[in-house]
Design goal:
This protein is an all-alpha fold and 150 residues long. The chain binds heme C. The site of heme C has 22 residues, from helix 2, helix 6 and helix 7.
Length: 150
């Protein structure tokens, strides 16, 4: 009795972890992958977009608020890519993503690399540095969209 109760508790605890793991590796349906990556890009847009009025001088520079957005951006920027696996064509993703995997990976790397200077600027509290890094990151978003998004 005790043993089986223990076993079912263990299972109950492990199940969500297993599910999360499976979900990360392979989405149930292509649609799930499309929704996941689009959702991730929406969050990326929200936290990257929050920097725009700051670098344009439309709102006062608040170092803590900027750093909070950049740190979330760093985290969320790891998410979309695993949702472009084989058989997940769709959404506004161009087929070139699957035909030119190296090119798509290079565009990801350019973007992810651009977050280093952005994060450094946010940590340093240097608005001029932030403006430049923001422009570079924005250019890497656009470069990927120009090649890989409809
Ligand atoms: C390496 C390529 C790549 C980079 C870098 C990239 N994106 Fe995208 N983005 C895509 C692709 C591909 C889609 C289309 C996804 C789909 O519809 O399945 C997309 C979609 C989007 C969408 C629409 C999501 C929706 O709801 O349909 C937004 C907003 C977006 N990206 C913002 C950004 C921003 C902001 C950045 C930079 C901070 C960025 N992206 C960087 C490839 C990229």
């Amino acid at each position: 009795m005790k043993k089986s109760a223990f076993a079912s508790i263990t299972l109950a605890l492990a199940a969500p972890l297993l599910a999360a793991n499976v979900h990360a590796q392979a989405f149930g349906k292509a649609d799930d992958a499309v929704q996941y990556r689009q959702g991730a890009f929406q969050i990326i847009k929200a936290h990257f977009g929050a920097l725009q009025p700051v670098v344009k001088g439309q709102v006062a520079y608040d170092q803590a608020a900027v750093l909070a957005d950049v740190e979330i951006l760093d985290q969320v920027s790891n998410l979309p890519w695993k949702a472009f696996g084989p058989g997940t064509e769709g959404g506004k993703a161009r087929d070139d993503i699957w035909l030119d995997e190296e090119g798509f990976k290079a565009a990801q790397k350019k973007y992810l690399d651009s977050l280093g200077p952005l994060t450094a600027a946010a940590k340093a509290g240097n608005l001029d540095q932030l403006k430049k890094a923001f422009a570079d990151t924005g250019a890497s978003c656009k470069a990927c969209h120009d090649s890989f998004r409809d």
